[in-house]
Amino acid sequence: KPLAGKGVLITAGPTFEAIDPVRGTTNLSSGKMGFSLARAAREAGADVTLVAGPVHLDTPRGVRRIDVRSAQQMHDAVLPAAPLHDLFIATAAVADWRPASLSAHKIKKDGKKIAPTFELSENPDILAAVAALPDRPYCVGFAAESEKLEHHAREKLLRKRVPLIVGNLGPATFGRDDNALLLVDADGVRALPEDGSRCDKQELARALMQDIARRLPVRD
Ligand code: C5P
Q: d(Cα 137, Cα 4) in Å, to the nearest integer?
């Protein structure tokens, strides 16, 4: 078991950013990739904490799960936990922005047919914040793109200062049971599956976990 004795922290799913008590904005992430990785990490012997946005998925056996809704809540759950883990994998599709103010009551139509407009504030970048901790775990990020996967993944590698970014094509992964990954690090790229085909997310998660386990620093 390559991850025996290791602590692994994973974020998964979308976040939900409230506009008023009954509405909000979110995205199409299903959480399947993150939950598959949590299962694979547990199978590989790790002690796994999964911080999940709003998803309809069962908790993998033996995994500790913390449910959150907004990006801020995900940030507040992850930051104190991160230094207690050896590996952090950010698979969550965290909303980049949230409505700048939350209406205390349901926003009503005013009868004048004027649609409301919203100001947005930027959410904290959870992965970049963990990667900047002095006692940070080994950090892995995801990039869901619609084009130029390697280019955007490499840009994230530098901007977030993490050693590994796993790229996938957004429209071809959100909500699906299969996927194809591109591992981008300072030395080069590796496709999973290696022949560039698509493969079941659980099988891919196992292969990715084996690859990541080999990258972890050996501790005395
Ligand atoms: O910032 P961007 O969305 O391009 O990068 C995606 C990677 O960063 C993913 O690993 C995602 O989980 C993580 N992320 C995060 N917090 C954010 C935005 C993205 O942890 N606010």
A: 16
